[in-house]
Amino acid sequence: MAAAATTGAGGASGLVYKRLLLKLSGEALMGKGEFGIDMAVVERLAREIAEAVSAGAEIAVVVGGGNIFRGLAGAAKGMERATADYMGMLATVMNALALQNALENANTPARVLSAIPMPTVCESYVRPKALHHMKSGRVVIFAAGTGNPFFTTDTAATLRAIEMDCQAVAKATKVDGVYDSDPRTNAHAKRFDRLGYSEVLARDLKVMDGAAIALARDNGLPVIVFSIEEPGNLLKVLRGDGRATVIE
Known about the structure:
Elements lengths: L18 E6 L14 H16 L3 E6 L7 H6 L4 H25 L4 E5 L8 E2 L2 H9 L3 E5 L9 H11 L4 E6 L4 E2 L11 E2 L1 E2 L1 H7 L6 H9 L4 E5 L5 H6 L5 E4 L1
Parallel strand pairs: 1-2, 1-6, 2-5, 3-4, 3-5, 6-10, 9-11
Antiparallel strand pairs: 7-8, 10-11
Helix pairs in contact: 1-3, 5-7, 6-7
């Protein structure tokens, strides 16, 4: 696990993870709706991120697009897979812009950087530019996945976390960690506090897709799975005392 961060100019005393990439699913943004964006939920998530930034953390975010369009679902209905995936990438840009708006309203500067250039809407992803934004105290929201079809936003999150020299990638879910089965349907599901990358892959635990876990393993990047439903949980994760499963 990453060593505890020391007190610095950013006031990050007590943070185990000074620089973190947060992976949010598109579904997390739709609240109790069946599709679309629930701005009340987005504003709550923005406040969580703003609180983390105020504590001295440097935060990057990757948002999925499943609340608007999911590439695999489109392909399953007969659409060509690459085209469906590009449509899913565009959905992530919409979500990223909504989150940026909510962060700005929470007085937390943010920038959207897209892997697919669209200069009238947001900045294009360039690694030095993204690093500069993070060092300047801005939340960087990465949109459009990796810019390539056939890769999930989980893989994009892992890739960007490594590129940004993050100490961990935190996957926000609706449950408080990784279980051997769905705890919402199985009352006897076993929860794990810690797991190895190889065990996740061998047991096919569906935390992230295999490519994302393998990329994290090959680069020694811890993956933290936690619940975003509980207020204040992101800051707890940054301090190393949140209820979560750590994969390393």
